[in-house]
Amino acid sequence: MRLARDERERLWKGIERFVNCDDGLHDYLALGRAFPTFWPIAVLLHPFRKPLNWNPVCHKLFLFYREVLRCIWRGDAPDADYLLDPSNFLLGLENEHIRAIEAARPHADQVRNQILARVSTKLISAWTDILTDFPDATAHGENRVQARWPDGEFLITPQNDFQRAFYLLFRQSWRARSCPRCSMFFIARKPKQRFCGTACSAGNRLASKRKWWNHVGAKRRAQEHSPDREKRRRK
């Protein structure tokens, strides 16, 4: 997946904003205005296929995606109430949405128990909110892995900028970092980068210097005011 530098930076910034977005609806809508192509899965309203991407009713679905992404970013074990394979889900290789929609529909009582054993209850809850306001809504855009004989590689074709950015990160997972000072998730531009930016790195250096001075300076001040030193000064 070869991209121009400006395009890579755009994808990095978008996925950073995505993973760091707060829980509030205001921040969710602001993210949608700034990065409209980063909606992770096409939510369409039939029969006219009107997109519901970044609609307020999809807020809970966004939070589900964000939490799965944060889980991967931190390197945590998958939450049993989320997904068995979060990477495949974020890449669109496992269409959990269809089963979640089946379980969320009002007439699904007979099959709900069977589906619940295979699909996250939080994803079903997100789709319940959507289907309450838009009963004809559905998900669209499951990806497929294609085997390319000439290259000897498997090919995934992302369908939106979120999948494109995550696929790029998937292939360079060392870039997914969490700032030890402010805890913000960020994309490392260099392997040795530990902090999200100059403010945190400079603040960390200042804190280290203060810690060093509090430790060493205390000894020096104690020596300055020691009785033996006072006697030597008088002589």
Distance between the termini: 77 Å
- What's the pLDDT, averaged over the residues? 83
Q: How big a fraction of the residues is strand?
A: 5-15%
Radius of gyration: 25 Å
Arrangement of strands in the largest sheet: 2-1-3
Specify the overall morphology.
globular
The biggest sheet amounts to: 3 strands, antiparallel
Give the low-confidence spans: none
Q: How many beta-strand segments? A: 7
Give the structural class. Answer: mainly alpha
Question: In percent, how helical is the residue content?
Answer: 40-55%
Number of helices: 10
The topology string of helices and strands comes to HHEEHHHHHEEEHEEHH
Question: What can you tell me about this protein's structure?
Answer:
By secondary structure, the protein is mainly alpha-helical. Helices cover 52% and strands 10% of the residues. The protein contains ten helices and seven strands. Strands 2-1-3 form a three-stranded antiparallel beta sheet. The chain has a two-stranded antiparallel sheet with strand order 4-5. A hairpin with a 6-residue loop joins strand 6 and strand 7. Helix 1 crosses helix 8, helix 5 runs antiparallel to helix 6 (109-116) and helix 5 crosses helix 7 (121-133). The chain is globular and about 90 Å long.
